[in-house]
Amino acid sequence: PVPKMATAQLYCVCRQPYDVSRFMIECDICKDWFHGSCVEVEEHHAVDIDVYHCPNCDAHHGPSLMKKRRNWHRHDYTEPDDGSKPVQAGTSVFVRELQARTFPSGDEILQQMHGSQVTQRYLERHGFRYPIAVHKMEELGLRLPPPDFSVKDVERYVGGDKVIDVIDVARQADSKMKLSAFVKYYYSPQRPKVLNVISLEFSDTKMSELVVVPDIAQKMSWVENYWPDDSYFPKPFVQKYCLMGVKDSYTDFHIDFGGTSVWYHVLWGEKVFYLIKPTPANLALYEEWSSSPNQSEVFFGEKVDKCYKCVVRQGTTLLIPTGWIHAVLTSQDCMAFGGNFLHNLNIGMQLRCYEMERRLKTPDLFKFPYFEAICWYVAKNLLETLKESREDNCLPPEYLIKGVKALITALRNWLKREVTEPASEVPDHIRPSHLIKMLTKEIQYLENGNCGSKLMKSQGISACPSTRSAHERRSHARRTARRLRDQDHHHSHSPKAPSNLDIFEQHTQEVLKRLEMGPNEEDASLNLKFNKVSTASAAVAERSLDNDLRLVLCNGQPNNAGEQFRVVCVCLKCTGLKLNHICSESATSPSTEEDAIQGMLSMAGLLYSHPSEDPSKGEHHAKLKHRIQEHKNFMDSQGSGSNSSSEAWSSHTHSPAHGESPTLGYQYCETSLSPPLHPSKRPASNPPPISNQATKGKRPKKGMATAKQRLGKILKLSRHKPFFV
């Protein structure tokens, strides 16, 4: 005979199998289990029932028996009120005593600011270490429903069947109920208990369309900036919460999950915040208090030196930084909106809060979703940021350096922990050990002072002087170039070194981009920027051992049309060295500097007249030839030329001629929209040959005509503007 398959046991009047996600209650008479929703018993009501009778047993044994209240100051209100036990947090006695306490004013630590002042640039410069209050939400970029938006409106947009977490304040216990049941409770004439909703995240509902989070929270958020669309882990949604609390609701002292910062706006009603600064001493006391068995009987505000009281009224937005310990009292019925976000400004504190949660064995439900995963994503992106700062020869901000150091330590510990705890949050496409190694290398590079940090510190510069928008515009292209470079390296064990032509092409592109500015720029500014060779270009020349190419910038004279030019002088240790590749189509190459310049100018579409043909220009060309000879002599004095340091080359200057602006001895570190290129690190682009009259019907010789076309195309890019050669 075929054995019968085991069938699941059925429960309740609905005769359904057990569902772990649904609340159930046992009948004390028939011992059957019933879904609370089927017998109209809410989860928070079940704790008040002493003996439960199901609908069937109720007919024979009478109604259920309820517990009798014996006190108003304990979470278990059936305990005898003999005065032997202290008051517990959240009870009605506790709330009355809290309202009678005196606290230092929140004005001592609260920063009152206009929303337009709360920018990422401001916080990066001044830090985000104290709470900020803003009284006009429009200036923050925050958009919310109108002040008459009601609890019933929330039900209409979110849906009454949505199951929400509700806190029974007098017991400080969490339970679940449908939103429709909470709305019914909220509007009941007599509320049997104090219920508080603080974790209704509505990003996946229609109400999300009514709310736009503050600009600062959007722009700084790790999730918004670094979480990839193709992540294996589900994206955390913690930016849009609706909080609905009745009078006397209370949330005891806590730190927001993962050390997140929080924005908080009171739509109507009033909230009172009790704020404690996250000093090392206070954090240690907080961890000790949180792990104590009598936590609810001790008011943490009394254990620290100062606990500040801050009243947040209707229309006010509060921004709370990382790690601040706070409790919240709802002094009158209130609806508020808020959100949490991780960011780069306080990475160390965020990690410290997360590790504290682990030590306290905080349930996953109350921790930031996939905190470790997002830290790996952030580490990968910050590695790119550090590389870009190094290539720009700029020092990253101090907060970022400290944050990366803390992140490296945390990532190492998590990687070691995976041996004993197999549940990993390392994304599949990240090589954790390699990432940690590369981050460590970048930090060591900074600490060894190899990126011009000494110079920048002496000038009072603490960060790369580029705007964030410029940085963002460069990031995608630069990271794409780096990926291409890495792919090329992967496919070839011996990557091809850049040729002399590639280096010259890269530098020409760099100079042309820098010269694309308005004609009204001051001469002094131009001299300041262009009379010195850039550090990046000098480093390129130094690294190319087979190339004695040196580029300097010399002042020229105005032509007859009044246009102003700068002349790029190409100085070679040997004047004929490889110059024929870019200056001639024929087998005969120029043998003098003058012929080389003539070839370059003709390719740029500029007329070159011999000194004897144009007396007005004779003096200029003589000066030009003189400077070329000076640079050639200088190179000859350096021995092989390619072994000279970039510092020695960049420090070699000329005495300014009459009428020229003196050059300033400084290291070029300005980050512009066209940053200094590094041909030895980024593969130079190789555009196809230009089709022009010079090449029609001919097959260009490799390295000669093609080279000319490539350079000609570069030089033609800026013909329509004041052209600097």
UniProtKB/TrEMBL annotation:
Keywords: Chromatin regulator, Dioxygenase, Iron, Metal-binding, Neurogenesis, Nucleus, Oxidoreductase, Transcription, Transcription regulation, Zinc, Zinc-finger. One of its GO terms (biological process) is brain development. Residues 471-482 have a biased composition (Basic residues). Transmembrane segments: none annotated. Residues 9-60 form the PHD-type domain. Residues 637-654 have a biased composition (Low complexity). GO terms for molecular function: histone H3K27me2/H3K27me3 demethylase activity; histone H3K9 demethylase activity; zinc ion binding. PROSITE patterns: JMJC, ZF_PHD_1, ZF_PHD_2. The keyword Oxidoreductase applies. SUPFAM superfamilies: Clavaminate synthase-like (SSF51197), FYVE/PHD zinc finger (SSF57903). Its cofactor is Fe(2+). It is found in: Nucleus. GO terms for cellular component: nucleus. Belongs to the JHDM1 histone demethylase family. JHDM1D subfamily. This is Lysine (K)-specific demethylase 7Ab. It comes from Cyprinus carpio carpio.
